[in-house]
Amino acid sequence: MCYEYITLRQMPVLTNTTPELPLNKNDWPMVSIIVPACNEARHIETAIKSRLALDYPNLEIIAINDRSTDHTGEILDSLAQEDHRLKVIHIDQLPDGWLGKVHALHQGVKQASGQWYLFTDADVYFKPSVLRQAIAYVIQHQLNHLVCIPEVRARGLWLNVAIRAFFLAFCINARLATVNNDNSKAAAGVGAFNLVEAEMFRRTPGFEWLRMEPVDDYGLGVMLRQAGSRTHMLNAMSEITVPWYETLHEMFRGVEKNSFGPSANYSWPRLIMMALLITASALAPIIALAAGLVTHNMILLGIFILFIATLLFFARVNYHEGNGGIWAYLCLPAGFFLLETMLLRSAWLCTRNNGIDWRGTHYTESQLKAGQRVRF
C-alpha cells in the first residue's frame, strides 16, 4: 500500500503541467492515434467520437477492425464517412505467429504518417484537452515516450477490490515509482495511453519483436527502454477514463491470457512461491490481530490498528479516483486472494490447454514462451 501511495503521489498530474505549444498550429507535430478494435461495438462509437473531439488540430485516427464479428466494422465505416481524419483498416485473417492485437497495431503503424504515435485501446474515453497537454509535456521535457494513467471505472465492491490489488502488484513488480528517473531502467506502458515518438519507434525492432507477447502495452515500454527511450508516466485520471472490465467474471477472463507468463515465466514452482507470498501478505494483519488478542501483545495489536488506519487514510486521500471507497481498501486482503486465484486459474488453464485461447485463436505454450518479452 505504501508503495502504491508513493507511486501515485510522486507521479506528476497531467492537468498540473502547463507548458504551451507554439501559437502557430501548423507547427504542432502530427499525431497518429492508432486504435485496435475487436468486437468493441459496445464502446467504439462513443470512444472514437471522444478522440475526434480532441482540441489538438493536427491528428489522424487509424482504427483497425481486427476480425470483429459484431458491428464494430460497420460503426467505424460510418464514422469515417463523417470525418476524414478517421481511417479504417479491416483485417479478415490473422497470420500465423501473431497475437491479434499486436498484429493490428503493426498494421496501424504501417499506415501512420504522424511524428508521434498514440497507441490506445478501443474502450478508452478522452477529454478534449488531453492530447494537447500530453504533446506539450513531451516537447518541454524532451521525451520519446509518455504513459498516462487513466481512471478505471468499475461497478461493484469486489471488482474494485480486485482492481486495487492488481494495480498494487503491478506498481511493485514494474517499479513504477522510479520510471520518471532518467537513470532508471524501469519500463512503463498502459493500453489506455502510450504516446511514442515515431523516430524513436523506428529505432526499435517494432511490433514484430512483440508479436507473441500478451502484455503488449507494457512490452512496448520495455522495447522502447531498451532502445534508449526517455520515458515519463503521468497521472491523467481526470482526463482519461476506461471501463476496463464490467464484472469480476470479465476480469478473471481478461487476465487469463497475460498472467502466467509475465508473473511466473510459465513456471509452476515460481508461481507457487508467489502464491505463498501473496497468502502471507493477505493473512499477516489478521494473524497479528488474532495473536495479539490471544497473547495480549500490544505490539501485535498496534500493527493491526496501524494497518487499518493506513487503509482508511489511503481510502480518504484517493477517494476522488472512484475506486470503491473505504470498503474497497478495507477488503484489500481479500483482493490479494482474488489476485492469487486469477494467477492460479491462468496457470491451470494454460497448462491444461497447452496454451491460451484468445479472440478465437489458440496459441501454444511453446509459442508464448518463445515470444515472451515481459518478465516481472
Description:
It is built from 15 helices and twelve strands. The chain is α/β, with parallel strands linked by helices and 376 residues long. The protein has two domains: 2-246, Spore Coat Polysaccharide Biosynthesis Protein SpsA, Chain A; 260-370, no CATH class. The strands form three sheets. It has a seven-stranded mixed sheet, with helices on both faces. It has a three-stranded mixed sheet with strand order 5-10-7. Strand 11 (355-358) and strand 12 (361-364) form a beta hairpin. The radius of gyration is 21 Å and the shape is globular. The protein starts with a helix and ends in a 6-residue tail after the last helix. The model has no long low-confidence stretch (mean pLDDT 89).
What is the structure about, briefly put?
By secondary structure, the chain is an alpha/beta fold. The chain has helices at 2-10, 44-52, 72-82, 100-111, 130-140, 157-174, 198-201, 216-226, 248-254, 260-264, 268-295, 298-317, 325-330, 332-352, 365-370; strands at 31-37, 59-66, 86-91, 116-119, 125-126, 145-149, 151-152, 194-197, 231-235, 240-242, 355-358, 361-364.
DSSP summary, beta strand count: 12
Give the CATH class of the largest domain: Alpha Beta
- The Cα radius of gyration reads 21 Å
Uncertain stretches of 5 or more adjacent residues: none
User: Biggest β-sheet: count, sense, barrel?
Assistant: 7 strands, mixed
H/E element string? HEHEHEHEEHEEHEHHEEHHHHHHEEH
Question: What do we call the CATH homologous superfamily of the largest domain?
Answer: Spore Coat Polysaccharide Biosynthesis Protein SpsA, Chain A
End-to-end separation: 19 Å
Mean pLDDT: 89
What portion of residues belong to β-strands? 5-15%
Structurally, how many domains make up the residues? 2
- Secondary structure category: alpha/beta
| Fraction of residues in helix | 40-55%
- What would the principal axes of the Cα set say about the shape? globular
